[in-house]
Please model this.
Amino acid sequence: MGLYKTLVRPVIFRTTSDYAHETTLKVSAYLSQKKWVVNFSDKIFRSSDPALKQKIWGLSFRNPVGLAAGFDKNGTSVKLMEAIGFGFVEIGSVTAKASPGNPKPRSFRLPQDLSIINRMGLNNDGAKTVIKRLKKQKFKIPVGINIAKTHDPSIGGKGALRDYKYSFDLAKNLADYITINISCPNTEEGKTFEDAGELDKLLEYLKIGSDSSDPPVLIKLSADVSVNQLHELLDVCESYAVSGYVAVNTSAERVGLNTSGKKIESIGKGGLSGRAIREKSTDMIREVFEYTKGDKRIIGAGGIFTEEDAIEKFKAGADLLQIYTGLVYEGPGLVKKINAGISNYLEEEGLDHIYQIRKGRKTEK
Ligand SMILES: Cc1cc2nc3c(=O)[nH]c(=O)nc-3n(C[C@H](O)[C@H](O)[C@H](O)COP(=O)(O)O)c2cc1C
Model:
């Protein structure tokens, strides 16, 4: 067992999930500014296996393991994330207006399920501040910006479209890719843009696919849509030539958990992430891959803790991966561990490159 699990995690897990989250963010942001920490971490954690490198959307990914949205909502810790070996980072969700998010407690660990329930409620410093912060820095890895609608139920209709557009226009001048989060389960008004008709209006308003100078645009899908709903959403997205999908966001469902029903009830609303949604996420990736006939790039997220989980996602059709909950339970060494595990798998299987794990998909190296 590593240092994180024996020494750090027991201390962190004695505090509330909210406190641990805030403290980790503060420490990460502080360490991100310390050059020697960044250089030192880079030496320990970096893995540079050419078999893991990919060129996707014209961007160079040194490895397929990315940081999922929600951890570094405000873009304060990208340098440290780069140094602990991530192949890319997705910051956000950012929204047009800054927001404190929902009242605490708003995140809860379920250790028996290696999962988390959160209802952060899109707390962030606002698109303008975050993007200004990112502009001042230079990164070696692709940095995506995830945008969502401001958490304010009074912003609806045309206002909601304008709200997204404000963040989109700011992000497009800087982001290596933009993810449109239409699937946050933690806002009072619910998931409006998961209605295919509403999504159509949004993508039309943002003029997705019409300006070749825009960065690649991805749509972040909910874990909870039915297969029919998913097909409707994909039809809309494909008609605007989006560049890919992030599958999946957290789930509002509470199926098959080991945690007691009493505890789950006492926690209340929120999005479930981690091991409990692993299969759901893999199924969704497979469905997206099959429905889009393997034409679109997919970032797979949901319950990735090991190289086996990673390989399962690749086999289902993912090109890249993102982790959040795994990082909380396993610590920063997880990124290097998963990458090393994928490299070993390739060697054992006699494969030269990760694209060979996927079903016949070719990738530029
Ligand atoms: C505390 C927390 C906050 C999150 N915030 C966001 C967010 O702001 N935007 C977003 O698109 N996804 C957010 N997510 C979802 C993750 O990006 C990811 O899709 C999901 O957690 C599944 O991955 P995991 O099982 O590795 O955690 C959040 C997840 C957690 C646990």
